[in-house]
Specification:
single chain, 917 residues, alpha/beta, 4-stranded mixed beta sheet, 36 helices, extended
Length: 917
């Protein structure tokens, strides 16, 4: 008898199995002791050529239960997928504390680097199919006396189970960690593709249930990792509300003593993106009736400190949704509304019912760290999302915040009139417009909000959201049909990984590049400005600010037409209409029909033609009387005693005003088409734009070019009537800044005679303000460089001190603390290298010596670590969802019976193979 056969027979003698057999054996069953004698070796087992003796032996040992087990009818399972998932996660949540403890013990033992050996271990109790990267085989797992659950016993071996009660399949931590890490680098990678790759390496066919098992194990693994991460945060005393938000970026938040005062305490940018939509599961199930009546599936399945809840966001929703007018009610004038879809509530309220979440709205600091995330739910980019994000950041960071938004000009008005308005004004909050989007705004809006002209902003373009979205759009394919839990899990995991492995890793490189850019502008821009000032014959730098103020006053004067001029244009137009209707009436009255004896027709045959002529005469008479009545009414309003005629000066002046209006409308049409062309060109070159969309944009550009040519024809006709400069197609398509259009609008005076309107003067103005922003950038970078140096020193000291506190009492937890330290400390040599490069730049005038932090509280890097009692946290179990206990017991009984049947069937197969051999 082989060793395997001997082990199989020894398993039959286990007391647990004998007791289980006694429970199912009938009272009339009498054991003849043959099985014991065979196991003792006193009697040989006769094996015939027909075989079957092992089956008989097993049947004799287990009694009638063995006979009835294969024939047992499986009762129907009426639970839904959601019910099973809820009960499964409830069962896992009870054990998550023990699993986290086991995970830390395994991690400490193996150092997180040792790979699992798939040769198996000593057979004791639990047989398990273990899936590793390069192998998958059944392995027996030893359950220690300290293991409270089977799941924790598996985790202690570096295995994550796929079932909470009776696991049969387990996946190694290395496999799960490999997928989780790879997916952050390549968000397109799906679970199914990864599992299929493993099946290919293991030379086994793929089945759908393997993906489901992997998904369960991945959720459990991530839940364990989050639990351990929360323990580490508790050890570091960084578990206070919003601690991560307030310390997300060391350059922005790690303030030092004796820093120079800056206009903005922190800069951030916010924007929405509609790529990360999620299809409503109710639509897929065919239940369309309740889509409009209910919100998406409950978000209680996932919580993360970066995510804003629906309830918090909805507090800023307005009961009165109205569209935005071109000119604000307060008279400030906002001509940008027609250029931006997200400025119109009637557009942002609409969304396809097939989607629950229509995208995400995020906020990032100007270095790129993700601060907050909010789901856009069954709507477009409404103002409530920006208000909710702004409110949260104001509460966290306090005064002097600057927030960039592509519609920052409109959001400034929205914020002022909202419930948050007074709070924002008291904290000196400033709404800004991003640099790229700002050039598509009205020139008057640019003078107040464009980054080039905002004092204290430096060279920041506030386009961090666009850079973040260009990479996060890769998540769309794997989250479009995901559940709320897995969609949010993927989004938060991606941004967390991006913050730690991309943004933080490149932080000092970011500062180095900005420092180089600022120094280049200062060195080259000064020479350029001196040359331009000589050409303009100006010597005082203050003239550029005066010119900018003059341009602002000039553009504001063009916002409204004078009421008297409007009535005069209306009167002139009505006179033209009256002359045309009088001419039509006179033509009809002067027309005679000559009828002779030869041409006379019977009365009955000519009646229809007579009625048509009478109807035409009546309509002409009515139109003339209507136009005459309007003209008389306008004469009364204007106080005109004698009707104007073309020879009058008033007639000619009003005609020029109407021509000016036609000219401006033709210019607006050309400008609108050029703006669309600029955005389509930028979209065509954007990373992630697919082939079909590129083809679609290419066709749209061809159509747009033809439309621009037609609009130019109308514009040039109107311009020639006024003696204005005409435009050529090649000239217009090269326009990148809309300020050139705004300078063409003035028809009451020649704007080109103004000193600030010439191309040389405009170049000098922009060069001067870029130099101002570059000087501010150098000051800001010097402050942030000192913050980074101090943070590196303080953080290393603080985390090492916390690790030493728990080294003796909780070595596993101390090891996790060291791993937390490794996440960022791995980039310290890289930071030091870039900081050294900054110090060698010609023109660097900062310091690399560490300063003293202003924050020395709990969890701060400059603070003093204190010992925290961890035993109570590890011993307590998480709270389950409602009804969890009964469901767990029910699942336990049900799974236990099914598992026992499968074990018996597996034992019979083993014995059959052994007998045949």
């Amino acid at each position: 008898m082989t060793v395997t056969e001997r082990h199989a027979l020894e398993a039959l003698r286990e007391p647990a199995l004998n007791n289980a057999a006694d429970e199912h054996v009938g009272d009339d069953y009498q054991s003849d002791g043959y099985g014991e004698m065979v196991l003792d070796g006193t009697e040989p087992l006769d094996v015939s050529h027909a075989s079957g003796e092992f089956q008989e032996l097993t049947r004799g040992l287990l009694g009638d239960f063995w006979k009835s087990a294969p024939e047992k009818t499986k009762r129907s399972d009426y639970r839904t997928f959601r019910d099973r998932s809820t009960k499964q996660m409830a069962a896992f949540s009870v054990q998550i504390g023990a699993m986290a403890e086991a995970y830390m013990a395994w991690s400490l033992k193996h150092g997180g680097t040792k790979q699992r050996n798939c040769d198996g271990v000593d057979t004791k109790l639990l047989s398990m199919l273990v899936l590793d990267v390069f192998c998958a085989e059944k392995t027996s797992i030893t359950i220690g006396p300290t293991d409270r659950y089977l799941t924790s016993a598996l985790v202690r071996h570096g295995l994550i189970p796929c079932s909470p009660i009776t696991p049969k399949v387990a996946i190694t931590v290395h496999v799960l960690n490999l997928y989780h890490t790879t997916r952050q680098r390549c968000p397109h990678l799906s679970i199914q593709a990864y599992v299929k790759s493993l099946c290919d390496m293991h030379e086994v066919p793929f089945h759908n249930h393997r993906s489901r098992q992997f998904s369960i194990a991945l959720d459990v693994y991530l839940q364990v990792v989050v639990f351990v991460s929360n323990l580490v945060r508790r050890v570091l005393q960084r578990d206070q509300p919003d601690w991560r938000l307030k310390h997300s970026c060391p350059s922005c938040t790690y303030r030092l003593q004796d820093e120079p005062a800056m206009r903005f305490s922190m800069l951030f940018t916010q924007d929405g993106n509609d790529s990360l939509k999620r299809v409503a599961t109710r639509i897929l199930d065919g239940d369309v009736d309740h889509v409009a009546a209910s919100l998406p599936t409950s978000e209680r399945t996932f919580h993360h400190e970066q995510y804003l809840t629906h309830e918090f966001v909805d507090k800023f929703a307005s009961d009165r949704q109205t569209g935005h007018s071109i000119v604000d009610e307060d008279g400030d004038g906002n001509l940008c509304a027609e250029r931006w879809k997200n400025m119109k509530d009637n557009a942002t309220q609409k969304m396809w019912n097939v989607f629950d979440e229509s995208g995400v709205f995020i906020a990032v600091c100007w270095h790129g760290f993700c601060l907050l995330i909010a789901d856009m739910v069954q709507s477009g980019e409404q103002s409530k999302y920006a208000l909710a994000v702004t409110s949260k950041l104001l509460d966290a960071f306090g005064p002097d915040l600057g927030g960039g938004y592509d519609i920052g000009c409109r959001f400034k008005t929205t914020l002022a009139s909202s419930v948050l308005g007074e709070h924002a004004r008291s904290l000196n909050y400033m709404s800004l417009v991003n640099a790229f989007h700002g050039h598509a705004h009205n020139r008057l809006c640019q003078l107040d909000n464009l980054t080039t002209y905002v004092e204290g902003l430096g060279l920041e373009d506030l386009e961090g959201c666009e850079r973040a979205f260009s990479k996060s759009n890769a998540l769309a394919s794997s989250t479009r049909y995901a559940s709320i839990f897995h969609r949010r899990q993927a989004i938060t995991s991606y941004f967390e990984h991006s913050d730690e492995m991309e943004v933080y890793a490149n932080l000092t490189k970011f500062l180095l590049n900005n420092y180089k850019q600022a120094l280049d502008i200062l060195s080259n821009g000064r020479a350029t400005l001196d040359r331009l000032m000589c050409k303009l014959r100006v010597s005082d730098l203050a003239i550029f600010k005066l010119w900018l103020d003059e341009e602002r006053v000039y553009l504001k004067s063009l916002l409204h037409e004078l009421p008297e001029e409007t009535l005069q244009m209306e009167y002139w137009q009505r006179l033209v209409n009256l002359a045309a209707s009088r001419q039509d009436l006179e033509a009809i009255l002067s027309t005679w029909t000559v009828v002779t004896a030869q041409s006379a027709a019977p009365v009955w045959s000519d009646s229809s033609a007579t009625r048509r002529r009478e109807t035409t005469h009546r309509h002409a008479q009515e139109n003339y009387e209507k136009d005459l009545k309007v003209v008389q009414e306008l004469e009364g309003r204007l106080g005109i005693t004698r009707c104007w005629v073309p020879e009058d000066k008033e007639w000619q002046a009003a005609a020029r005003l109407v021509a000016n209006r036609k000219y401006q409308r033709a210019l607006d049409n050309v400008e609108r088409l050029v703006v669309s062309r600029i955005f389509e060109l930028s979209k065509m070159n954007q990373s992630g734009t697919r082939y079909k969309l590129r083809k679609h944009i290419g066709k749209a550009l061809q159509t747009r070019s033809a439309a621009i040519q037609a609009a130019l024809t109308h514009y040039n006709t109107a311009a020639k009537a006024l003696g204005r400069r005409t435009l050529e197609f090649d000239e217009v398509v090269e326009y990148a800044f809309l300020a050139d259009f705004d300078l063409l609008r003035d028809t009451r005076q020649d704007v080109l005679t103004r000193p600030w309107a010439s191309p040389t003067a405009r170049l000098a103005i922009n060069t001067y303000f870029k130099l101002c922003r570059a000087e501010e950038e150098v000051v800001c970078l010097n402050v942030e460089i000192c913050r980074i140096v101090t943070y590196l020193v303080d953080e290393d000291r603080y985390v090492r001190a916390c690790e030493a506190l728990y080294q003796d009492a909780h070595p596993a937890l101390a090891y996790q603390t060291s791993r937390y330290h490794t996440i960022r400390s791995r980039f310290t040599p890289l930071h030091l290298c870039y900081l050294e490069k900054i110090s060698h730049l010609p023109g660097f005038n900062g310091m690399l010596s560490p300063g003293i932090s202003t924050s020395c509280g709990l969890g701060d890097s400059a603070g003093v670590p204190q010992h925290v009692h961890i035993e109570a946290i590890l011993s307590s179990s998480p709270v389950c969802v409602d009804g969890g206990e009964e469901d767990i017991d029910e699942d336990a009984d049900e799974d236990h019976g099914a598992t026992l049947e499968e074990q018996c069937e597996a034992l019979q197969n083993i014995l059959s193979v052994t007998t045949d051999a």
